[in-house]
Each structure stands twice: as structure tokens, then as C-alpha cells.
Amino acid sequence: MIEAKSKYTKLIKTEAKRLGFLSCGISKAEFLEEEAPRLEKWLNQNKHGDMRYMENHFDKRLDPTKLVEDSKSVVSLLLNYFPSEVQNSESYKISKYAYGTDYHFVIKDKLKSLLHFIKEEIGEVSGRAFVDSAPVLDKAWAAKSGLGWIGKHSNLLTQQVGSFYFIAELIIDLELEYDTPVTDHCGTCTACIDACPTEAITEPYVVDGSKCISYFTIELKENIPSEFKGKFDDWIFGCDVCQDVCPWNRFSKAHSEPLFNPHPELLSMSKKDWEEITEETFRKVFKKSAVKRTKYSGLKRNIEFLQ
């Protein structure tokens, strides 16, 4: 049995690498005991703002066996999205993760391939793929699986490659060899806390989602509160400040996923181009991009808020 577990674990990790994942870690599918009080406190303090969906499925968020019956393992995967080129510095900014094709589609396809491979090679294995679209605490599972530690900005961090990657999971009913968490290497550094334009990192490891630029520019459907005027640092979709200033991101290397390459027009757009963007251009440039989440009207609202 131990030999089989070891063999299957190696198989899965090798295939994950072949599919282009940065790394793969595995942990036992069980109740996230440490996360439960933390999540409850965060929700009670209303740090999720208008993201009411965060209140739903509390039990499922903490217990994978409630999402996938008889699940035994959570396979966590990282996929790099760090770009080789960034927008011109005199422009309004969008988060690097949204430069190319919406990651949900790209990762979902890779996860399906991995699940198919597991069934082909190992046999009758049941499971589900998750990409940020179900009540799964991605970062907690990735940290538990030894893929990195949760930094003071609440993103997953690794010494080798920083934090510019997506996290996804396969929850399966197959017992595997489990990885162990790594230690925290933030030390006394407070770069992310000091740099956050809206002071959303209220204390180390705690982000008030309702003050975050990403929340205002993507999740919030109402008008952006006027007290944040002048604090957006030219961000109109998402925000990378806490990652950009993190010393560990000096080690970020450009991704090799063609689907994450930006639309040719995106990198050269000036502020004027953004201000004059038509619905037609929006649809063309962001045809398959995550930016579509905010819709044309939302993007216009964000741009106008900065003017």
C-alpha cells in the first residue's frame, strides 16, 4: 500500500509538471482546524465587504469531504502568470494576472487533463477540479501542502518564485503521500503593509477586503466611496502593489503559457486610450480576459474615479 501511494504520488507530480504547473503539493483531505476561527473572525468583522458569497458554505470551505464525498487528498497546484513585459508606466494599470486569457479556462483544462490522466493510469478515482470558483480555501491548502507560506499580505509566498501564480486544486478519493508545510520567511519585513495605498493590510497577515483596491475595482458594484479618491495609484482593475514590493518577487521568472500573453494593444495603451475606450475596443482587447468581470461600465466607472 505504501509503495502504491508513493508511486501514484510521483506519477501525479510528474504529470502536473508536464502540464506546465509550477509545482504540486498534496495534503490529507480533512477539516481545516486552524482556519476555522480565523475565517469566522474575519467574516464577523465584515472584512469581506459586499462579497456576501463569502458567508455561504462555511462548513464546505473548511472541510473538503463535504465537497467531494469520500475524498482523501487535496492536490494543490501552482501556475505561474508573471509576464515578461508589463504595461507602459504612464498608463492606468490592470493586475498582471488579467493580461491574457481568463485563468479559469486555462487552468480548468489543465486540471481536467490531470484528472483524466489519474483515471487512465491509476483506475477508478473520483474527484473534482477547483479553480477559485467554489468554496475552497486555496491558499490554506497550498500552504498545508508545502507549496509556500501565507505572507503578511495574505498571499501565498515561495522563496524560489515569489507569489505571481494562480492556485488550483483537485480533491480526489485516493490516498497519497502527504507533504508538510514550510516555514514562514517574512521575518521583520513590512514592505507590503507600508506600501498598500488604501491601508487594507490592517495588521500582519490580515487584509480588510473591503478596503482593498482589487475589491473596489472588481467586486464592488456600487459607487466607490469618495474617501478613497486619490489613493488608487492608477489601478483600474485589481492591484499588484503588495506583490510588486515584496522582496521575494525579485525571483519571479516569466511564465511560458502562451494563453497568458497580453493582447498586443494592451501594453501600449496610454491613459488617453483608456479614457476614450469604446465598448467595441473593450470587447476586442478583453475578449477572453478576466477584465470582463468588471464589464465595460465598471471599467469606465473605475477610470472616471481616477480622473
From TrEMBL:
Chain sites annotated for binding tRNA: K221
One GO molecular-function entry: epoxyqueuosine reductase activity
Major place of residence: cytoplasm
Pathway note: tRNA modification; tRNA-queuosine biosynthesis
Cofactors that this protein relies on: [4Fe-4S] cluster; cob(II)alamin
Note on how the cofactor is bound: Binds 2 [4Fe-4S] clusters per monomer.
Any one Pfam family match given in the protein's UniProt record, by short name: QueG_DUF1730
Alphabetical list of InterPro entries matching this protein: 4Fe4S_Fe-S-bd, 4Fe4S_Fe_S_CS, QueG, QueG_DUF1730
PROSITE patterns noted in UniProt: 4FE4S_FER_1 (PS00198), 4FE4S_FER_2 (PS51379)
Reaction(s) the record says it catalyses: epoxyqueuosine(34) in tRNA + AH2 = queuosine(34) in tRNA + A + H2O
Keywords carried by this UniProt record: 4Fe-4S, Cobalamin, Cobalt, Cytoplasm, Iron, Iron-sulfur, Metal-binding, Oxidoreductase, Queuosine biosynthesis, tRNA processing
UniProt-annotated binding residues for cob(II)alamin: R61, D132, L156, I167, S214, C239, D240
A cellular component term, taken from the record's GO annotations: cytoplasm
EC code(s) of this entry: 1.17.99.6
Binding positions for [4Fe-4S] cluster 1 per the UniProt entry: C186, C189, C192, C246
Quaternary structure annotation from Swiss-Prot or TrEMBL: Monomer.
PANTHER family in the cross-refs: EPOXYQUEUOSINE REDUCTASE
Family: Belongs to the QueG family.
Full protein name: Epoxyqueuosine reductase
Natural source organism: Hyunsoonleella flava
